[in-house]
Amino acid sequence: MDKLKIKIEEELRGLSGRIGLAIEIGTESFYVNNEGQFQSASLIKVPILIEGFRQSEIGKLNVDQLVSITNHVGGSGVLQLFSREAKLTMKDLLTLMITVSDNTATNMLIDRLGMEAINSSFEKMGLQHTALNRKMMDFEAIKKGLDNITSPMDMLTCLKVIHEGSYLTEESRAAVLKIVSYQQFQDRIPGMMDLDKVFVANKTGSLLHVEHDCAVITHKGKTAYAAVLMTDLMMYLWESRK
To answer: How many alpha carbons fall within 13 Å on the CB side of residue 93?
Structure first.
């Protein structure tokens, strides 16, 4: 871990913008601005996924229920190209929300799960700096100061909820972990890993000037949790050139 810390510190010295990170491997840890608040971008979809499975456990959500595609929105995902006659299960929506970061699926799930219930779940999980304040692609809400937020430490908490602990049943945790492990965007934390030898379940998040990733990584019986959140990247460069 000491070598990793030194390497990370070297990389941080040359980084523009604002960064927060949290890494835990067994009893060792490394934090930088780990409780700082950041625009969550699509990282907010991870605790929404958890809440979906929690509601399934208590009978509030039927993951096998077929639903029609409604309220198409742009950005990431594939459902914006589907017709309104197409039908998918709620589990399909949960899966697409994570694996291809589908915004239409996310907004449908927010409507179904309830924004209030989702935020209440965040509190129950112990997320101290995370809030869902708008749907995906709602830029008018952003202009009004309403945005989704999280922190590196809160994302680590979400990863631990998925991989260990008692917030979800073992069956639900296995299902959630499987979904996250099929993530299609693997060019960040897993980017230089041999995924034939290392298990990685990750979720990225991007907006203008924002690049995030968080991951559960297991290898040779050891588990690592990592969350890296970066923002103001281009803005910092632009300001420095004035």
So the answer is: 31
Kindly compute the dihedral angle of the four CA atoms of residues 44, 178, 212, 82, in this order, to the nearest 10 degrees. Answer: -70
C-alpha torsion 120→125→130→131, nearest 10? -10
Q: How far is CA 95 from CA 48, 175, 182, in A?
A: 11, 10, 9
Per-residue exposure over 156-176, b if at least 16 CB sit within 10 Å of its own CB, e if not: bbbbbbbbeeebbeeebbebb
Measured from the Cβ of residue 236, the count of other Cβ atoms closer than 10 Å reads 15
Q: What mean pLDDT do residues 13-20 have?
A: 86
pLDDT greater than 80 at residue 14: no
149 CB neighbour count, 10 Å cutoff: 16
| Beta pairing class for 18-25 and 28-32 | antiparallel
pTM exceeding 0.85: yes
